């Protein structure tokens, strides 16, 4: 049977001797996680462009994050008249609450939606996230040499 104290001591000794491995692993995991999240968002946007239906939405509030940019919260009604809300993900462009925006949603899953337009903002968001992800992976590789 495995002694928990012996396992803890072995893990602690490994970390003490190989702390750089842990840092490399952390950078690698964060980089790959950011990249996968961005790829998922790109896939979702491609699905919405192909299968989504356009509808009208309204900005109902602005989400303020102290460590990030502000985003608009959009409310819209699906084809059955049920209302849904989502975070636009893009930086809020200063439109007042109540402004009408075009929304594209998946009719099979109305929670999957985004504001149409602003392609430059969407490209900049995804490109910058992928650059940061590549930076994390690069740093993890540099730390290994």
Any overview of this molecule?
- This protein has 145 residues and is of the alpha+beta class.
- It is built from 3 helices and 5 strands; from the N terminus they run ααβββββα.
- It has helices at residues 4-17, 19-51, 119-143, and strands at 53-63, 71-77, 83-91, 100-106, 109-115.
- 12% of the residues are buried.
Q: Overall pLDDT, averaged? A: 86
Rg from C-alpha positions? 21 Å
Cross-sheet strand order for the largest sheet: 3-2-1-4-5
Termini separation: 38 Å
Q: Give the % helix.
A: 40-55%
Q: What share of the residues does DSSP label as strand, in percent?
A: 25-35%
Low-confidence stretches: none
Q: Tell me the number of helical segments per DSSP (H or I, 4 or more residues long).
A: 3
Write the layout of secondary structure elements.
Elements: H1 4-17, H2 19-51, E1 53-63, E2 71-77, E3 83-91, E4 100-106, E5 109-115, H3 119-143
Antiparallel strand pairs: 1-2, 1-4, 2-3, 4-5
Helix pairs in contact: 1-2, 2-3
What is shown here, in short?
The protein has 145 residues and is α+β, with helices and mostly antiparallel strands. It has helices spanning 4-17, 19-51, 119-143, and strands at residues 53-63, 71-77, 83-91, 100-106, 109-115. A hairpin with a 5-residue loop joins strand 2 and strand 3.
Features:
single chain; 145 residues; alpha+beta; five-stranded antiparallel beta sheet; 5 strands
């Amino acid at each position: 049977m495995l002694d928990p104290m012996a396992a803890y001591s072995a893990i602690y000794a490994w970390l003490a001797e190989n702390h750089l491995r842990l840092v490399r692993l952390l950078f690698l995991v964060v980089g790959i996680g950011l990249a996968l999240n961005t790829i998922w968002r790109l896939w979702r946007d491609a699905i919405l462009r192909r299968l989504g239906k356009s509808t009208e939405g309204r900005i109902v509030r602005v989400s303020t994050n102290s460590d990030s940019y502000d985003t608009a919260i959009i409310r819209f009604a699906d084809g059955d008249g049920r209302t849904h809300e989502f975070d636009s993900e893009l930086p809020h462009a200063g439109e007042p609450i109540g402004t009408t925006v075009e929304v594209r949603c998946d009719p099979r899953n109305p929670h999957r939606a985004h504001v149409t337009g602003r392609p430059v903002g969407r490209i900049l968001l995804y490109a910058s996230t992928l650059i940061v992800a590549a930076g994390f992976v690069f740093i993890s590789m540099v730390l290994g040499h």
